[in-house]
Structure formats: C-alpha cells, structure tokens
Design brief:
Layout (H helix, E strand, L loop, with lengths): L2 H4 L5 H24 L11 E7 L7 H14 L4 E5 L11 E4 L8 H4 L1 H9 L5 E3 L3 H12 L3 E5 L11 E7 L27 E5 L10 H6 L5 E3 L1 E10 L18 H4 L3 E6 L4 H10 L3 E7 L8 H14 L3 E5 H4 L12 E9 L4 H15 L3
Parallel strand pairs: 1-5, 1-6, 2-4, 2-5, 6-7, 7-8, 10-11, 10-12, 12-13
Antiparallel strand pairs: 3-4, 9-13
Helix pairs in contact: 3-5
C-alpha cells in the first residue's frame, strides 16, 4: 500500500509545502544570527563586491561578474574574482584557477563557471574555494587587489561585503514566489533589502513582467535594467580538435553564415529553454534541441547521441554555449560545424547611471 493510500491527506504538494516551511525557518534563523550580530562576518582588508540572486537558476551572474571585472580594470582598480567553484573537484581548500595571465587548472578542478570566467577575463585572477573567506585571503596574499568580486555571493554571509549587487530576471523576478523546494526562491523576498542595487536582467525578453511589485519592495534602492546580448564566441570546423576557450578570441568567422542553416542546439543549463529562445532572437533556425542537466560534463557517448539526433533532425550545424563548451572532453571532435555562443551584459539606456553608481561605490569602499 502506498503512502498516499495510507495517508490520503498526504500529497507531493503537501510535502513540498512542508519542505519550504522548514527551509524558510532555517533561512530566517540564519539571517537573524547575522542581523543581531550573534555571528559576525569576517571583514577582509579589501573591498568586497558581491554579485548574486534570490532565485535558483541563471540570472546572468557569470557575465555580470565578468562585466564588473572589466569595468574595474578600466577604472584603474585591481580586482580578483572569488567563486565557490560549484561541482569542482577538491574545492575544500582555496586554489588559483588563473593568475590573470594563464589558466592554472582544468575545468574539472575549477568548475565550469570559474574556468569560463578565467578564460574570458584576461588580466583578472580567479580564485575558488568552498570557504570564500579562505579564497579571499589567498587572493589578497597573492595579488594585493583593491577589490574582490564575489561571484554568487548574496547568500554567503560569512564574508563581509561592501556592496551587494542583486540580479533578478525580468521575466520572473521572484520565480513562483515560493521558497525551495516548492519554488525557486533561495531566501524570502524580504532579503532584497540587503541589496545596494538591483539589476533586472533580460529586460528585453518577450515575457518580461511588470516589475511594479519589485519597485514597491525595493525601498528606493537603485534599480537598473540590463540586457543579455548573444555573441558568437567561435566556430569549430568539422573533425578538428576543439581549441581552448581562451584561444577563441574573436574567431567568429563564418558563424553568421551558418545561422541561416538548420541548427541543432544542445546545452546543460539551469533553464535550457532560455538558450533556445536566444538563438531564435539572434536569427538562428532550430531544427532540433537536446537538453542536459545544469553543469553536465559531456562524454564521448553524449557526443555520439547529440550527433545522431542532429543528423536525424536534418541539421547542418551544431550550436551550444561557451559554458557547455568548456565541459567537453579534451580532444573532442565533431562531425558537423559547431557554433559556440556566449553572452555579455549591456545596460543601454541605464548605462551612464550604472557606471556612475559603480564608480561612486568603488570610490567609497576601496581602501587606498
């Protein structure tokens, strides 16, 4: 007899509701410990800027962290990116992914997102560690930065931060308004009060919502609108070894030509459908798609299945993301051309206000 037959009042939704209740109680208790100073965050001798979100899934933290690293560099500041190194091997102790000039580890040891940031952001070192305090200390000892950029750090309260940048997807700023596991919220909506600035990403999405509720709850905090801009990071020719991401540069020759042909898209992201949508908005024609779990590491078997489905769909070209690309096995070869897509962040009409905000915050918190 199933549990549902024995307990007719029990259902999956009831279980998820109870799980959210327990999760919410634990989160609020933890917040209270820090709010009342029963636990004090560690303050490092360096300015810390955190980039994070309230919901699970991609809101653009990686491209935003890269954007801020580049902006800080142009303003004359030395920055180091700090990341947990999610799904990396042996991330218990802090380690260098990049010294700003060379990649010092592989994607398995670094995790896909830190590795990608290190490959794309030359001149900015990347350090990983489950304990961001230890990673920050290593970064300060090695590089003496003006700024630590804390990737995905909104919920990481152990480390004191000087500026909290909160990213929210304009399509669903609060997800379904329910906490994990019933919904996608990592914290109650009230947690947005910790933000120094709120950035609404994907503001040009087809299904961007009316964000009047967010504006009411933001308590006069600055709210900026940002946009995901797709770009062709590189094109891998058939039956050639996939080059390192770092060597792509602006190697997008011929990529636009392939977008007119039937494409087979595959990716392992928090929300693969967003990638499919971005391809269409970029002008691509999809013949078929294949979705994997977030942070999926691709095997030779996966590649064979992808190619089989691509041929069956009539596709003339494969297309994936740069985050997926770095998770290919060394020496991977594909029988069809492979377009690698990347994403950058733009602020368009809010550009000057955003730059002024960042410049003001940096002048205020950087210790010279």
């Amino acid at each position: 007899m199933s549990s549902h037959e024995r307990f007719p009042f029990f259902s999956l939704s009831t279980g998820l509701w109870a799980g959210s209740l327990l999760y919410g109680s634990a989160v609020r208790a933890r917040q209270a410990l820090y709010r009342h100073h029963w636990i004090r965050p560690v303050k490092l001798p360096c300015a810390v800027i955190s980039v994070g979100n309230l919901t699970t899934g991609g809101t653009g933290k990686t491209p935003m962290t890269i954007y801020l690293a580049e902006l800080a560099k142009r303003m004359g500041y030395r920055a180091v990116i700090i990341s947990r190194g999610y799904k990396s091997k042996n991330n218990r102790s802090a380690r260098l992914v990049s010294d700003g000039r060379s990649l010092l580890t592989d994607v398995c040891q670094a995790g896909d997102e830190p590795y990608l940031m290190a490959a794309l952001q030359q001149g900015t070192p990347v350090v990983i560690g489950r304990r961001r305090v230890d990673a920050g200390k290593l970064a300060i000892g090695k590089f003496k930065p003006d700024i630590l950029l804390l990737d995905d750090g909104y919920q990481h309260m152990q480390l004191h931060r000087d500026v909290n940048v909160l990213l929210m997807d304009a399509r669903r700023p609060f997800g379904n308004c329910c906490l994990l596991p019933r919904g996608s919220l990592r914290e109650p909506i009230s947690a947005l009060q910790r933000a120094d600035a709120i950035v609404l990403t994907r503001s040009d999405a087809m299904h961007a919502q009316d964000c009047s509720k967010l504006l009411r709850l933001s308590a006069n905090k600055p709210v900026f609108r940002a946009y995901h801009k797709s770009r062709i990071a590189g094109v891998v020719r058939p039956q050639t070894d996939c080059p390192d991401m770092i060597s792509f540069g602006n190697n997008h020759s011929g990529g636009r030509d392939w977008l007119d042909k039937p494409l087979f898209a595959f990716s392992g992201l928090a929300d693969n459908s967003r990638f499919w949508e971005s391809i269409k908005l970029f002008g691509g024609k999809l013949a078929g798609t294949m979705a994997f779990d977030d942070h999926h590491c691709y095997s030779a078997k996966d590649a064979a299945v992808i190619c089989k489905k691509a041929r069956h769909s009539g596709a003339a070209c494969l297309i994936t993301t740069d985050k997926d690309y770095v998770r290919f096995a060394k020496g991977s070869r594909w029988p069809l051309p492979l377009i690698v897509m990347g994403v950058t962040i733009e602020f368009r009409q809010d550009m000057e206000h955003w730059r002024s905000f960042v410049e003001h915050q940096l002048k205020k918190v950087v210790r010279k």
